[in-house]
From TrEMBL:
Source organism per UniProt: Paraburkholderia lacunae
PANTHER family: TRANS-SULFURATION ENZYME FAMILY MEMBER
GO molecular function annotations of the record: methionine gamma-lyase activity; pyridoxal phosphate binding; transaminase activity
Entry's family note: Belongs to the trans-sulfuration enzymes family.
Cofactors demanded by this protein: pyridoxal 5'-phosphate
Residue numbers carrying N6-(pyridoxal phosphate)lysine: 205
Record protein name field: Aminotransferase class V-fold PLP-dependent enzyme
Origin superkingdom: Bacteria
Record keywords: Aminotransferase, Lyase, Pyridoxal phosphate, Transferase
GO CC, alphabetical: cytoplasm
Annotated PROSITE patterns: CYS_MET_METAB_PP (PS00868)
Keyword set includes Transferase: yes
InterPro entries with a match to the protein in the record: Cys/Met-Metab_PyrdxlP-dep_enz (IPR000277), Cys_met_metab_PP (IPR054542), PyrdxlP-dep_Trfase (IPR015424), PyrdxlP-dep_Trfase_major (IPR015421), PyrdxlP-dep_Trfase_small (IPR015422)
Class of this enzyme: lyase
Length: 389
């Protein structure tokens, strides 16, 4: 379309439907009627038809797809009921028993489970490599390698993968690449422009941006999208028309929100790094991040997730989170409200402190997802909470 991202977020879906309303209509219908048997035959046979049966497609889906494809720079897109719906559907569409997949030692937890547990159960071999080591991806490739799965930046240390270098290796060998771009959002990073074939998102995070919907997006070529769509309608992780509409509403302000969140997170990370009660801060926008140079090359901004360790152990970190007044104590990320969690608490129900130490789970770690509040308020809130430990 030739517009900048800010304009595309508003205008990319204008001609997708012929609605006269300025605000998009919510097509809350499971099924659409045909004008006659000829149209019915067409609706039933055209893949991804937007007015046939909502599991197959829906006019609101069509709008979200148009916006997301423009934002990621891909030919087209698909929407799903969740981020995991997008990741599982895309991966299961392109691998079969006997194939080999390369993934990273760190992924979103359910992605790791999908690769490590489910794929193996269906006869797919999987190798996990250190994402900071490009050569490790190359070395892991086998004659039957079909797919390389990337995610950057990734929890818990916000490590970064050299996306262009890995896709170059993959392309030379005819291997597909898939990248989870949830943490960056297309405003900060466009993996397809770095060579990735399939870009996936949890729309539950930045894309929706208001902690209200669960959704996923797959951005790719027309050919791959049609292949993935056939798996999608079989697995059935269908985004509801209402959530698609909320997602569309969220996308309108994505560029603005991400810009503000980038600025807030950078300022908060620098503030924390200079504070005596903080042991270490992990944020790709900091010079102290081990891959800051790479992050600057492939990202336009560094996102809203800041990870840090407070000086102390389990108790201090827990007290710090409890003393915070602004961020809510909740485990999502990428929305307008700041959220903070003491990461070790996630395992507290099932593991002792000793077991966590043995499993390399840092006890003093905080994951802070920065929102769009005023930065002065976020800083003074963190300062008062640090006073209390
Ligand atoms: C949240 C998340 C997912 C899963 O998304 P859901 O919408 O919760 O299914 C996948 N990848 C990343 C990086 C995430 O943060």
């Amino acid at each position: 379309m030739g517009y900048k991202l800010e304009t595309l977020a508003l205008a990319a879906d204008r001609d997708v439907t012929d609605e006269k309303s300025v605000a998009p209509a919510i097509h809350y219908s499971a099924v659409f009627k045909a004008a006659g048997s000829e149209e019915f035959a067409e609706m039933s046979s055209v893949p991804q038809h937007p007015r046939n049966y909502t599991r197959y497609g829906n006019p609101v889906h069509e709008r979200v797809k148009a916006v997301m494809a423009e934002l990621e720079g891909t030919e087209t897109a698909l929407v799903t009921a969740s981020g995991m719906g997008a990741i599982a559907t895309a991966i299961l569409s392109v691998v079969k028993a006997g194939d080999h997949v390369v993934g990273q030692t760190r992924h979103y937890m359910s992605t790791t489970k999908l690769l490590d547990d489910m794929l193996r159960r269906f006869g797919v071999e999987v190798t996990f490599v250190d994402q900071t080591d490009v050569i490790a991806f190359d070395r892991a490739i086998r004659p039957n390698t079909r797919l390389i799965v990337l995610e950057s930046p990734v929890n818990p240390l916000l490590l970064v993968t050299d996306i262009a270098a890995v896709t170059e290796i993959a392309r030379a060998r005819g291997i597909l690449t898939l990248a989870d771009n949830t943490f960056a959002s297309p405003i900060n990073q466009q993996p397809h422009r770095l060579g990735v074939d399939i870009v996936v998102h949890s729309a539950t995070k930045y894309l929706g941006g208001h902690h209200d919907l669960t959704g996923g997006v797959i951005c790719t070529s027309r050919v791959l999208a049609e292949q993935i769509w056939h798996t999608h309608i079989t697995l059935g992780a269908v985004l509801s028309p209402m959530d698609a509409w909320l997602l569309l509403r969220g996308l309108r302000t994505l560029p603005m929100r991400v810009e503000r969140i980038n600025a807030n997170a950078q300022a908060l990370a620098e503030f924390l790094e200079a504070h005596a009660k903080i042991e270490r801060v992990f944020y790709p926008g900091l010079r102290s991040h081990p891959q800051h140079g790479l992050a600057c090359r492939q990202m336009r901004g560094f996102g809203g997730v800041v990870a840090f360790g407070v000086r102390g152990s389990y108790g201090e970190a827990q007290r710090f989170v409890e003393a915070l007044r602004l961020p809510l104590n909740a485990g999502n990320l990428g929305g307008v409200d700041s959220l903070a969690i003491h990461t070790a608490s996630m395992w507290a129900g099932t593991m002792s402190a000793e077991q966590m130490r043995a499993a390399d789970i840092p006890l003093n770690f905080i994951r802070y997802s920065v929102g769009i509040e005023h930065i002065d308020d976020l800083k003074s809130d963190v300062a008062q909470a640090l006073e209390q430990i």
